[in-house]
Amino acid sequence: MKVRHCMTKRPLVLGPEDGVRKAASLFLDKKFGAAPVVDKEGHLVGIISIIDILNTFSPDFLPLLKDLSFIKDYGALDIRVKDVRELEKTKVGDIMARNVITVDEDSDLLVAIALMRKNGFKHLPVVKGSKLIGIVSQTDVCRRFLEIWEGQLKGENS
What we know:
18% strand; 6 strands; two-stranded antiparallel sheet; CBS-domain; four-stranded mixed β-sheet; alpha+beta; 38% helix; 6 helices
């Protein structure tokens, strides 16, 4: 099976000049966790996810810690109004991932799954050359497998 069989064609995209608030609203309204970032010509220039937005509120060292139980007062790590005001000025291009791993629409689905698992991604942009043509997510893959399984089970009963 190929990526094109389960990718979302014409996904919602953001531009690097869009505000982070727009990205957060889009994620919440549309109930998805990442969006490709494209330039005016439709070339993929990055990807942004909910975790990229959340990371703007956390200290850089936080992911290095295995255990936070030693911290007795989280006040120093608290989100303040000034942090939110600073985020209001932040553009998608400021926090997006730039070195994006992509997949081609004619790639085997197992290649996409392997790339997602190896890199800890939930979404992969699908490109033709440097142009974005879709996105494939873990949910898309699971949905497609479920459709196939259900189709096979129905076929066995007839």
